[in-house]
Amino acid sequence: MRVLAAMSGGVDSAVAAARAHAAGHDVTGVHLALARNPQTFRTGARGCCTLEDSRDARRAADVIGIPFYVWDMAEQFKADVVDDFVAEYAAGRTPNPCLRCNEKIKFEAVLDRAVALGFDAVVTGHHARLGADGLLRRSVDEGKDQSYVLAVLTREQLDRAVFPLGDSTKARVREEAAERGLAVADKPDSHDICFISDGDTQGFLQRQLGDAPGDIVDGRTGERLGSHNGAYGFTVGQRKGLDLRVPAADGRPRYVLSITPVTNTVTVGPREDLEVGVVTASKVIWHGESTSVECDVQLRAHGEVYPATVTIEGDTLTARLTSPARGVAAGQAIVAYQRSADGDIVLGSATITASAPLATARA
To answer: Which residue intervals make up region (Interaction with tRNA) (predicted)?
Structure first.
C-alpha cells in the first residue's frame, strides 16, 4: 500500500512512519508547515509546527529511509483552525483546536491531496485503534488515548486512515524510537495550543479581539459582582481569575456558569449550579447502527466518562446522563462510546450547543 505519513517532528509520528515502513508499505513522509512565519523556532516542543519540529521530522525520515517533503498549509491552518478558534471564543463557546485540526487539516486537506497524488492512505501517530471492522477504538494506553479528537472523522476518512500506535503504550513507543535510532525518542510531548507559543490563551484572544468590558453577575440573584475586559477570556466551569469584588455570603468559591456574548455578561454561581443532566449537540458524525442507544459519553478531551442514553434526530444529538456532569461547555465535542471486549468503540461525535440542569433532565 502506498501511504503518506504525517510527521510532526515528535516521537509518535516518527515511530508510526517507521512501523508502516517496516510493514512493507511504500511510505513517504510529509511535515505540515502550519506557522505563518517560516522562521518560527522554539526550544523544547510546545506545539508541532516549528522550524525545529520540521528539522526533527526530516532527520527521522532520513533514519527510516523514506522520502520526505514539507507542505505549506499555513494559510489553511489559520483560516480553519486559528480563525475558527478566535470566532468560537468570541461567540461564547469553548473550541477544541486539536479536534478542528484533525478534521480540517490532517484528514480533509491532507487526505484529499494525498488521494489526488495517488496515495492509498494517511498514517499518523495518534494513539487510537482501527479494528478489523473498521471502527475507531480507544488506544490500549488510555492515558494517551486520542480517539476523542478523532471522533469527528467520517467513515470515508477512517477508511483511508492508519494508526499504527494504538496497540502500544507511550512508554513502549519511546523505547522503540530509541531502538530504531530516532533522535526524537526523548523529545517532550507537545502540549497546550500549538499556535499560542507562550501558553497565554487569554492574552492571545485579547490581542485578537481587543478589550470588551462587561459585567460578571450572580446567576441566582442577578447581582453585579464584578467586571471583565472580555467575556472571551472565560469558559464554563472556570474558578480562577474571576476577580470578584463582592464575596459570596456563604464564603464558598464561585464558578463560571454561562457566557452571554450578546450582553457581554459572564454569569457565576456555586459549584452545584454547574450540574447538567441533558446535553444537546449538532454537526453529528454517527457510526452506530442505532439512533437510540445506551452508551458512555465523554464531554472533554481526557475528561470523565458518563453513562447516558443518546438519541439522534436529524442533525441533533441529545444525551441524557444518568449522573450529573459539571463544566459542560458549548463548543466542545461530545463523543459516544460503546463498551466492548476489544476496547471502547467510538459510535460518533457532535459539537455541544447547549446543556440543561439536572432538575430539568428529571422533569
So the answer is: 144-146
